[in-house]
Amino acid sequence: MLSETEIKELEAYCKENRRNIIEMVYSAQSGHIGGSLSACEILTVLYHKFMNNVTCWKNSPDFESRDRFVLSKGHVSPLLYSVMAQVGYFDKEELKTFRKLGTRLQGHPTAFIPGVEIATGSLGQGLSFACGIAMSLKLDKNPANVYVLLGDGELQEGNVWEAFMQAAHRKLDNLTAIIDRNHLQIDGNTEDVMALGNLNDKLKSFGWNVLEIDGHDINAIYNAFKAANESNLPTAVIANTVKGKGVSFMENNPGWHGTAPKEADYVKAMKELS
After folding, report:
1. E-assigned strand segments in the chain
2. Exposure class string for 10-32: b at 16+ Cβ within 10 A, else e
3. What is the pLDDT along the chain (274 residues), one digit of tens a residue?
């Protein structure tokens, strides 16, 4: 359980990350806001309270013991970059270069950036990558953990479910899959495009430890990651979220999946997040 002081600190980090997301996409006039905002608490808690790899990247003797993170929903790179800058991978000034010519901060993350394990963006592949990493760590008797963030829309891809089977079969208890369950994808509601149904029961039937939480509740996220690290099974955290969370006119609006704000939208959003 986090203290009240820790929660307030993390809430302030989340607000800063939301402002950064809006700033980056507005400045570039390109990028994905909705899903970045919905996963904000998830990655903020993960990087500030669980991931050890920022220290490892800066201290080469500890490099192999770093925790690994895979952003399967690679289009929400604005959130990842903001959190990574916040914890010290690179200077926050570099966020201003997002999606601009010559930048390291591409629309989807690449391994040019310290702390990014693998280039992602073609949806549905991240969990397979994460399984491979988790298996290799097991073979090396390396105690590091692997985390992967998936969108719910990409769970409509078949190879995601092959990876769920593989992880359970290989007993990858060092693997945590976080599902950003905001119920929206680029074409609308996930249940209209291709219904996912009861994910909790489905994942349990695949042999996973399943935790379902409010994906904007900082304490719930913290407790879920803590429980995942103590489980003897691979863990799936179903984080129920609101797409566009934090900006009233973007919330639950699929139109903000990959749309850059115009000046009036930008001013209104930043006022709400001030």
Report:
1. 68-71, 146-151, 175-181, 184-185, 188-189, 209-214, 235-240
2. beebbebbbbbbbbbbbbbeebb
3. 899 999 999 999 999 999 999 999 999 999 999 999 999 999 999 999 999 988 888 888 889 999 999 999 999 999 999 999 999 999 999 999 999 999 999 999 999 899 999 999 889 999 999 999 999 999 999 999 999 999 999 999 999 999 999 999 999 999 999 999 999 999 999 999 999 999 999 999 999 999 999 999 999 999 999 999 999 999 999 999 999 999 999 999 999 999 999 999 999 999 999 9
Torsion angles phi and psi, residue 157, rounded to 5? -85, 135
Mention every residue, 6+ apart, whose C-beta is less than 8 A from residue 35. 73, 75, 76, 151, 180, 182, 243, 257
Apex CA 133: angle with CA 136 and CA 234, to 5°? 100
Specify the number of domains making up the chain: 1
Lookup: tokens for 202: 């489905």
Q: Among candidates 215, 52, 267, 257, which has minimal Cα distance to 147?
A: 52
Q: How many CA atoms lie within 13 A of 234 on its CB side?
A: 30
Tokens of 108: 């989807």
CA distance 34 to 54: 26
The overall pTM is greater than 0.90: yes
Name residue 147's beta-bridge partners: 69, 176
* Domain range enclosing 119: 4-272
